[in-house]
């Protein structure tokens, strides 16, 4: 194998690991906040499992839809935890 290829692959791996660590740290500083996303502005799959991607919510402030927010700010935004959102959804059924 070409020594240059080995060295560049190793360098790329080190860079990738360095970029992944800040992303993991950022996730610890954020929390899922349910019921605050406007239509088309959710961050990922909903609790009901009717879609699996960001930006697919159809209704403003639906309890099954969520967005990432800075840790500790969800309640200030009148949002819910996942457990609270699930309880609210079960009451509607």
Query: Averaged pLDDT, please?
Result: 83
The domain count comes to 1
- Tally of extended strands? 2
Shape summary: globular
Distance between the termini: 62 Å
Summed up, the helix count is 2
- Helix content estimate: 25-40%
Strand content: 5-15%
Radius of gyration, in Å, reads: 19 Å
Strand arrangement in the largest pleated sheet: 1-2
Question: What are the low-pLDDT stretches, counting only 5+ consecutive residues below 50?
Answer: none
What characterizes the major β-sheet? 2 strands, antiparallel
Question: Helix- and strand-based class?
Answer: alpha+beta
Notes on the structure:
The model has no long low-confidence stretch (mean pLDDT 83). A two-stranded antiparallel ribbon has the order 1-2. The longest helix has 26 residues, at 3-28. With 93 residues, it is α+β, with helices and mostly antiparallel strands. The protein has two helices and two strands, in the order H-E-E-H. It has one domain (3-92). 40% of the residues lie in helices and 11% in strands. The radius of gyration is 19 Å and the shape is globular.
């Amino acid at each position: 194998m070409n020594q240059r290829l080995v060295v560049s692959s190793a360098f790329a791996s080190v860079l990738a690991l360095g970029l992944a660590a800040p992303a993991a740290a950022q996730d610890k500083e954020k929390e899922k906040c349910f019921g605050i996303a406007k239509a088309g502005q959710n961050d990922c799959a909903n609790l009901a499992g009717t879609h699996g991607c960001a930006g697919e919510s159809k209704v403003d402030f639906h309890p099954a839809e969520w967005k990432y927010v800075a840790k500790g700010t969800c309640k200030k935004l009148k949002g819910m935890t996942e457990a609270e959102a699930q309880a609210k959804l079960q009451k509607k059924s």
